[in-house]
Amino acid sequence: MAADPTATLALAVRAEQLAEYLRAATRVAARSTGSWRYGCYEDLVLQRGRSMPGQRRPAGVPRGPSGECFRNAGRLAMRGHRYAEGFALPEHGVPVLHAWCLDGRGRVIDPTWEVPERAVYFGVLLPIELVLTASLRHGSWGVFGNDHHDDFRLLRGGLAAEDPTGPGGRGGRHRPLSRGHVSPAATPEPPGL
Predict the structure, then answer these.
(1) Residue 35 structural domain
(2) Beta sheet of 96-102, edge-to-edge order
(3) 167 CB burial (10 A radius; 0-12, 13-18, 19+)
(4) pLDDT, tens only, 148-190
């Protein structure tokens, strides 16, 4: 089935709007970050992440509760998908801190939004171990949103999994994660979450 040219153009425009938001936030934060590696999470995502178009949620992946994207994506990642965190721009809205997963071919699987195929995403892959550690330690899902509990460790020093060459030699991306690092049976869900 051929892609709708109007929808494709609309996604391209939203992708550029999201990238411009990230660049603007980075410019503002650069004025006051001192020796930190990243001035803000937008800066980290812009330098280490990539843009991704949304796609329809695959059959068999249920939509989780709205407002719980970090939990929804974390649970899906525990079933073998790769966890991503960053910023996303829905069809009608503003850029938001968000979490989603990637399938084995690098396509977005958003277990939260109702119409993910009309959204654009810009984010980084994070090891499920990092997600689970942060979630268990702080009692809430997510990595970027919990970083303030750790004195902004990610903004100050970056991510341990950063690979300066990146996949395909493009640079600035995180190493792809292998599937099945964490067994859902072996890893308890954070209490009360």
Answers:
(1) 5-174
(2) 50-53, 120-126, 82-89, 96-102, 108-109
(3) middle
(4) 998 899 999 888 654 433 332 233 333 333 222 333 333 444 4
The answer to the question of residue 180 being in a domain is no
pTM (2 d.p.): 0.79
Query: Helix and strand tally (H, E) in the chain?
Result: 5, 7
Smallest Cα–Cα separation from 177: which of 119, 126, 107? 126
List pLDDT tens digits, range 26-50: 988 876 667 889 989 999 999 999 9
- Residue 187 falls inside a structural domain: no
User: Which amino acid type is present at position 35?
Assistant: S
> Is-contact 135 146, C-beta < 8 A?
yes
Residue 179 included in any domain: no
